[in-house]
Write a structure and sequence with these properties.
heterodimer; A: 4-stranded antiparallel beta sheet; 3-stranded antiparallel beta sheet; B: Tetrahydropterin Synthase, Chain A; 4-stranded antiparallel beta sheet
């Protein structure tokens, strides 16, 4: 196009003596082609472009699509994936990452990353993930050298600062949520201070463990906690088995006693009434009544008896002849 | 229009040519440039991005980074004031603020890194050696840790150790100590932080042993608390049982006693109205006794003396009836 045309004129003026036909046209063609080649560029959908013209940044961000620029090194385009969610892994690594700063390649390095000291001077192993986006391309590109490595360093530093202010119990069990939030906040503050142009979306704690050598001791605490509950439950079970029954039995005894009391009093009253009735009549004719009662009793009793022996009061020494206990 | 375009294109082409021939040079947003003439810096440091001019051949462009630069210190073994052997890994950020000075003293990035290693390394060593381990580990002075309620009872001494300065203060101390000597190299130290602090491999075993014993103590606490609580429950059970049974016994006896007393009173009031009634009661009761106690199994030897047979030997009776 027009600028290539200009190049041709320029070259024509500058190199009049090289008027050697084929060479001239070949070089013109080569320059024109490369100028054309370096005049087009495209920005992917998830990215924005920043243009440096003679090294100086042009203010507007270039939106996705195919664009024209000045050829060669006059305009230089930097493509920054600002929409993409990026992540860095610490203490472990998911295979297949294209970004070399996503995780450490060496096992030794990963162990060093995850080993830290808690605020009660215990050792802990912490795996975590930082999810971030590049939100200010100009800062990301021009304020910091190797921003991704710096992010790794900053993230490790912040995580240790947070863990160093917490007890091992907070780190391993109850404090995880809070640690994630605090670490995110602090890391963002640091990144802003460093002008890294990055926004931390999230920090996630993955595995948080005591060192391998100590793990069984931690498990034992859990077991002991279970055991405590179990023995309390057993004791409570025994209590529940015995006490309600005992209460019922006690109530039963009391009810029975109340029954007895009613019976006893009623019977006494009955007996007394009966006696009083008879006694009233008795008083009217004491002798006869006494006789009658005696004889009535005898009449009732005597027929029921087994052996009956009647002795004359005048007979003496009759006992030897009696055969007692014939059975 | 066409003219304007031609002028613009002409300017760019001329610039292109100037760069190619060494009359002009490009300074990008990340760079600053010290121009030297026969090895000696001339003019001011160029920090503005864009196209700049110089004398060709005679003057040389020395480019330096303008951005904040990283420094990742080597992990080094250090001894804290309380004689704990630890591995400290620091990182810092710095910037070339006086490029001419930097060019004269250090020339390139690699020698700068090694100077930073020296200065920051020794400042870190000095600060760490003057403080207890906990000062390097903790940051805040007054943070109250959240507690696992279920652990709290067993875990009383597993607390955050107090600090007088804390990590951030120490980082500031190192920063202050190192910033001044670095100025002389045209370097401005921006920031310094502890990256990693770990127990040295030689003391890790001891730390683990301590952690294990702490956990064992907590576990023992749980077990003993469990046994204690169980014993308390069993004790309560025994007490309740005794209470229930004895209270029942007491109530039963009270009820029965009261009833017996009432019955006794009723009987007494009936039978004890007069001498006759008492005697009559005795008689009637005796008769009842006969009815109840004499049965088929009993043998009876009676004399004709007895009242019922007094008429057996004669109608007038053998004897006076007993009274």
């Amino acid at each position: 196009m027009s600028e290539t045309q200009f190049d041709i004129n320029e070259l024509r003026e500058k190199l009049p003596e090289f008027n050697l036909g084929a060479i001239k046209w070949l070089s013109i063609f080569a320059i024109a082609a490369s100028a054309l080649w370096t005049s087009f560029y495209s920005i992917p959908a998830d990215s924005r472009g920043v243009i440096l013209r003679f090294g100086k940044m042009q203010s507007a961000l270039i939106t996705p699509g195919l664009h024209l620029k000045l050829p060669f090194f006059i305009d230089r385009v930097y493509i920054v994936p600002i929409e993409r969610q990026l992540k860095q892994e610490f203490g472990f690594g998911t295979e297949g990452a294209t970004d070399s700063s996503q995780y450490s390649r060496f096992a030794d390095e990963q162990i060093a990353e995850k080993s830290m000291v808690s605020g009660d001077l215990n050792a802990a192993l912490v795996d975590w993930v930082v999810q971030y986006r590049i939100t200010k391309p100009e800062e990301y590109l021009f304020r910091v050298r190797s921003p991704k490595d710096t992010l790794r360093d900053a993230s490790e530093s912040i995580m240790r600062e947070v863990i160093g202010d917490r007890t091992i119990d907070e780190v391993i069990t109850i404090g995880r949520e809070e640690i994630q939030l605090t670490a995110r906040e602090k890391l963002q503050e640091l990144l802003d201070l460093y002008e890294m142009g990055m926004t931390v979306q999230q920090i996630q704690l993955k595995a948080v463990n005591p060192p391998r050598e100590v793990k069984s001791a931690f498990n034992e605490v859990n077991e002991a906690q279970q055991e405590q509950e179990t023995s309390v439950n057993i004791a409570n079970g025994e209590y529940q088995k015995i006490i309600p029954e005992a209460k019922g039995q006690a109530d039963q005894k009391i009810s029975e006693a109340e029954g007895y009391a009613l019976q006893r009093v009623n019977e006494a009253q009955g007996d007394a009434s009966r006696f009083n009735a008879i006694y009233t009549e008795f008083l009217k004719a004491p002798e006869v009544t006494r006789q009658r009662l005696y004889l009535e009793t005898m009449a009732e009793v005597l027929p029921q008896l087994g052996d009956k022996t009647i002795l004359d009061k005048d007979m003496q020494q009759v006992l030897p002849f009696l055969q007692l206990n014939q059975k | 229009m066409k003219n304007a375009l031609r002028i613009i294109i002409g300017v760019f082409a001329a610039a292109l040519l100037a760069v190619v021939t060494g009359v002009a040079y490009i300074v990008t947003e990340t760079e600053q440039v010290v121009v030297t003439q026969f090895g000696r810096p001339v003019g001011e440091t160029v920090t503005e991005a864009g196209l700049h001019f110089k004398m060709p051949f005679v003057q040389k462009v020395n480019r330096f980074d303008k951005r904040a630069l990283e420094w990742d210190g080597p992990a080094s073994d250090m001894l804290t004031k309380d004689k704990t052997f630890i591995v400290v890994d620091t990182f810092g950020r710095w910037q070339i603020t006086d490029a001419k000075q930097f060019f004269l003293r250090l020339r390139d990035d690699r020698s700068a890194q090694s100077r930073l290693d020296d200065i920051l390394g020794s400042a870190t060593l000095a600060t760490v050696a003057n403080h207890d381990l906990i000062e390097v580990v903790r940051t805040s002075k007054d943070r109250v840790p959240a507690r696992d309620e279920s652990l709290a009872e067993q875990d009383m001494d597993n607390d955050l150790k107090p600090v007088s300065k804390g990590r951030v203060k120490l980082e500031e101390e190192i920063f202050t100590a190192a910033a001044e000597p670095l100025k002389d190299f045209g370097i401005k130290l921006l920031n310094l932080r502890f990256k990693r602090i770990n127990y040295h491999p030689t003391v890790v075993g001891k730390i683990h042993t301590r952690m294990i014993s702490e956990r064992a103590q907590i576990a023992a606490g749980f077990r003993s608390t469990g046994a204690g609580e169980a014993a308390r429950i069993i004790g309560t059970k025994e007490r309740e049982l005794s209470r229930i049974n004895s209270e029942a016994y007491r109530k039963v006896e009270e009820i029965r006693g009261k009833a017996d007393a009432e019955a006794t009173a009723i009987y007494a009031s009936a039978y004890n109205q007069s001498l006759e009634s008492a005697e009559f009661y005795q008689f009637v009761k005796t008769m009842d006794l006969y009815k109840e106690s004499l049965s088929k199994e009993a043998s009876l030897i009676l004399s004709t003396d007895s009242e019922i047979f007094q008429y057996l030997k004669g109608a007038t009776g053998a004897a006076e009836p007993g009274n």
